[in-house]
Amino acid sequence: MSAIVSVRNLRKAYAGGFEALKNVSLDIEEGEVLALLGPNGAGKTTLISTICGITVPTAGKITVGGHDTQTEFRAARALVGLVPQEIHLEPFETVMSTVSFSRGLFGKPRDDTFIEEILDRLSLGDKKDSKVMTLSGGMKRRVLIAKALSHEPRVLFLDEPTAGVDVELRKDMWEVVAGLKASGVTIILTTHYIEEAEAIADRVGVINKGEILLVQDKVDLMAQMGKKQLRIELSEPAPAIPDALSRYNLARAENGLTLTYTYDATGERTGITTLLNDLQKAGLQMKDIQTQQSSLEDIFVGLVKETA
Fold first, then answer.
1. 147 and 236 share a domain?
2. Residue 25, SS3?
3. Domain-ending residue, one of 198, 223, 248
4. Do residues 24 and 10 touch, judged by C-beta distance below 8 A?
5. Residue 241's CATH number
6. What angle do CA 220, 190, 185 make, to 5 degrees?
7. pLDDT digits over 280-301, tens only?
8. Mean pLDDT computed over 89-112
9. Number of domains in the chain
10. Quick one: 231 and 157 in the same domain?
C-alpha cells in the first residue's frame, strides 16, 4: 500500500510556548483503518485538525493524496472528510438537506441519488425526511458521518466517534467503519476505548504529550510487546513463595491460592515446564492453570507511563 497522508516533522506551538505537537512524522496508508490512542491532551485532535487544514502548523509538511495542505489547500481538503467530536447540526433541517448542503460546500453538483445511497449505507434511509432534532444521539453521529462523506472523500477522520454512545450503538458504529473500509475509504479515528482499536483497526498509533510513541500493525504490536501470564490455582493456600521458586518472580494472591507467572510468549523458552516441575518439588499441589494474553490496554498504559 502507498501513503495517502504523509506528515513530516510537524510541530504546533502556541503563543504561550505550549507545544501541542512535537516533530510528528506519520504515514497513513491508503485503505487502512488507523486508530490513534492517547490520553486527554495528548495531541490527537490537534493532529487531526492540522491535517484537515483547520489548524495552521508552526513547522513541518503535510500532504494528502500528494497535495500540500498549505500550498494546495483546496485540492488536499477536497480529499478529506472530518467527523468532529462535538455534534453541531441544524436541528430544524431534514437529514437529506443537511447532508446535501455539505456536498454543495465543496462545489459538488447536486446528486440526490448519491446522497440517498450514503444514507442507506448508514441506516439513515428511512430518516432522510426527518428533522435532525427528532433523531437519537447515535443517529446524529451517523448524520455527521454522512455529511463528511457527502463530497466523496478518500480519507475520513473520525474524532472520538463513539464518545458518549452506549455499547450497542458503539458496536453498530464499528460495523459502519468496516463497511466504509470495504468501500475503499481510508479511516483514521481517535478513541479512548481500547477495545475499539482492538476490534476495528489495522494499525495502532500511540500519541502522548504531542509525540508519536509508535505506529505499528496491531497484531505485530501485541505479539512483540504483549506478555502472557500463567495463573496457577493451588489446592491449598501457600503461606509464602518457597525460596526454590524465587527465580520465577511469581506474584502471590493475598489468599495464597493463586500464583501468577509472567513470561514472554515470543521467547524461545517460556520456562513453564521447569516452573511446573519445581512447583511439584516444592510440595505445592496445582488445582488448575490458565494462560492470559496481555491486552492492547496493558501495552498502551505501559507506553504512556514510560513518558509520564
1. no
2. strand
3. 223
4. yes
5. 3.30.70
6. 80
7. 899 999 999 888 766 666 777 7
8. 95
9. 2
10. no
Same-domain pairing of 179 and 55: yes
Please determine, for residue 268, whether its predicted confidence score (pLDDT) is greater than 70. Answer: no
pLDDT at 262 over 80: yes
Q: Is residue 225's pLDDT more than 70?
A: no
- Is 66 a member of any domain? yes
Residue 293 CA neighbour count, 13 Å, CB half: 11
pLDDT at site 87: 87
In this structure, the answer to whether residues 60 and 95 fall within a common structural domain is: yes
Q: Domain ends where: 223, 249, 279?
A: 223
- The answer to the question of residue 22 being in a domain is yes
Query: Do 253 and 111 share a structural domain?
Result: no
**What pLDDT digit, counting tens, does each position of 39-66 carry?**
888 899 999 999 999 999 999 999 999 9
> Above 90 in pLDDT, residue 200?
no
User: Are 65 and 6 a contacting pair, CB within 8 Å?
Assistant: no
**Integer angstrom CA distances of residue 42 from 157, 158, 178, 213:** 17, 16, 26, 11
**The three grid cell numbers given for residue 154, joined into one nine-digit string:** 478518500
pTM, to two decimals: 0.76
Say if residue 44 is exposed, middle or buried (CB neighbours under 10 Å; 0-12, 13-18, 19+): buried
Which is more confidently placed, 98 or 219?
Answer: 98
User: Is residue 303 situated within a structural domain?
Assistant: no
Strand partners, 189: 35, 158
3-state secondary structure of 42: coil
